[in-house]
Specification:
This protein has 282 residues and is α+β, with helices and mostly antiparallel strands. It has seven helices and 14 strands.
């Protein structure tokens, strides 16, 4: 391990589970938390392994889950070893541009740190590989909602748009919760340029490293009471969910559902999470 990173060589689903399985054999192998996955990542490098995994995902099923339930869960995006390495970076302040103590701002209880540029290679790999297929989904959503703007195919092009608008601070972050901590419902909006989808990866094991601390999503629907989803996930799982709003099909056509997310009170232990936000901050 070097600077908290692994020193590798260069280089619609059933409603009950809401887990989106990969399509390809290579991605299916990368999904399992076993020695074969570790060997595959070591052979090609963690970043390349992540790119292979993402390319093999069933993105049609992911989009169907997002439209039906407001989120989609991808199992085993990171290995246990990669989760430990990423969580260990929290104790390395030189990697971050700022630290936020939630209680000081009324955000809840707990803390998080935003990475500085240049981002860790694993974060870059996740941000770049996820952006492409998510941009296609985002463009279809904008079409359904009657929004004129469209997103470019490459993340570097979208970042250039953010930077031209004065949004130049990186937004990927590590979050740390301890017993009693929680995160109030919120939206991760950092400026005029907003990418409508984001992702999070759980780096700690529920039931072993912590209890409580569930990821909670709420939907505010027109003329209806809010709906709540509690996301079931395990260490290494990735969850994709909207930043602000998503389209939903109603009896009179497509309408906007406004969403917020937060974390329930941690009852014991410590929980680390990696957040992947695709727009930069002003």
């Amino acid at each position: 391990m070097k600077n908290g990173e692994l020193d590798f060589a260069a280089g619609a689903a059933p409603r009950a589970s809401r887990k989106v399985a990969p399509l390809s054999v290579a991605a299916d192998a990368a999904q399992a938390q076993n020695p074969a996955q570790h060997q595959a990542r070591r052979a090609v490098g963690a970043a390349a392994g992540i790119a292979v995994h993402v390319a093999g995902l069933d993105w049609q099923a992911i989009e169907a889950e997002l439209l039906s339930h407001g989120y989609a869960t991808v199992p085993g995006m990171l290995t246990a070893e990669e989760c430990s390495a990423m969580a260990a970076q929290y104790a390395q302040p030189e990697l971050f541009r700022s630290r936020v103590v939630m209680a000081q701002h009324g955000f809840g209880s707990g803390e998080y740190q935003y990475f500085r540029y240049p981002l860790p290679s694993m974060v870059v790999a996740l941000r770049q590989s996820l952006y492409g297929p998510l941009a296609q989904i985002a463009n279809r959503w904008h079409e359904l909602l009657g929004v004129a703007s469209r997103f470019p195919a490459e993340h570097t092009e979208f970042l250039a748009r953010c930077h031209a608008a004065g949004q130049q601070r990186p937004t990927p972050l590590l979050l740390q919760y301890q017993s009693g901590d929680y995160n109030c419902l919120h939206q991760d909006l950092y400026g005029e340029q907003v990418f409508p989808l984001q992702a999070a990866i759980l780096l700690s094991e529920p039931g072993r490293d912590f209890t409580g601390g569930e990821l909670v999503l709420t939907e505010q629907r027109p003329r209806l009471q809010s709906r709540v989803e509690v996301v079931p996930w395990q260490r290494g799982d990735l969850v994709i969910f909207p930043v602000d709003q998503r389209p939903a099909q109603g009896g009179r056509g497509v309408y906007r559902v406004h969403m917020r997310h937060g974390v329930s009170r941690l009852r014991s232990g410590r929980r680390h999470t990696l957040g992947i936000i695709f727009h930069d901050a002003a």
